[in-house]
Amino acid sequence: MAEHEGSVRVDSWIWSVRLVKTRALAAAACRAGHVRVNGERAKPAQALKPGDEVRVREEGYERVVVVRKLIRKRVGAEAAAECLVDNSPPRPPREFVAAAGQRDRGAGRPTKRERREVDQLRRGR
C-alpha cells in the first residue's frame, strides 16, 4: 500500500478508500456539498491529514469516517478498511425505506395532483 506523508486531496482519498465509485463522482460530490471535512464543506482539492473526520452523504444515508492513513491510489477493500475508522450509524432497514408509488400499466401519464402526491411520498411528508 502506498502510504504518504503530508496531505492528499479529499476527492482522491474518498475514491481511493472506496467510498465512491469513481474519482469524477468524488469531485462532483464535493462540489455539490455532499462531503464535509471536520464539519466544514469540502472542495475537491482540500487537503486531508490523518485524524480528520470525513462525512460523505449518499441517498438518505451519511457515511462518517476518520482518516487513519493517507493513500493516493485505489486499493482493495481489505487495504482500504485499514485506512479509515468507520463511525457511520447503521443503515435503516429496507422495509422502512419509503416505496415509490407505481402506476398500473396503461394508466397513462399522472395528473398534476398525482405527481404532487408522489413527490410528497418521496420527500417523506
Overview of this protein structure:
- This protein has 125 residues and is an alpha+beta fold.
- The chain has a domain at 8-91: RNA-binding S4 domain (Structural Genomics Hypothetical 15.5 Kd Protein In mrcA-pckA Intergenic Region, Chain A, Roll).
- The strands form two sheets. A five-stranded antiparallel sheet has the order 3-2-5-6-7. Strands 1-4 form a two-stranded antiparallel sheet.
- It has helices spanning 10-16, 23-31, 77-81, 112-123, and strands at 8-9, 35-37, 40-41, 47-48, 53-58, 61-67, 84-86.
- It starts with 7 loop residues before the first strand and ends with a helix.
- Helix 1 crosses helix 2 (23-31).
Please render the helix and strand layout as text.
Elements: E1 8-9, H1 10-16, H2 23-31, E2 35-37, E3 40-41, E4 47-48, E5 53-58, E6 61-67, H3 77-81, E7 84-86, H4 112-123
Antiparallel strand pairs: 1-4, 2-3, 2-5, 5-6, 6-7
Helix pairs in contact: 1-2
Main sheet record: 5 strands, antiparallel
CATH homologous superfamily (4th level) name of one domain: RNA-binding S4 domain
Helix content: 25-40%
- The N- and C-terminal alpha carbons lie at a distance of 46 Å
Q: In percent, how much strand structure appears in the residues? A: 15-25%
H/E series = EHHEEEEEHEH
User: Mean pLDDT across all residues, rounded?
Assistant: 86
Number of helices: 4
Unreliable stretches covering 5 or more consecutive residues: none
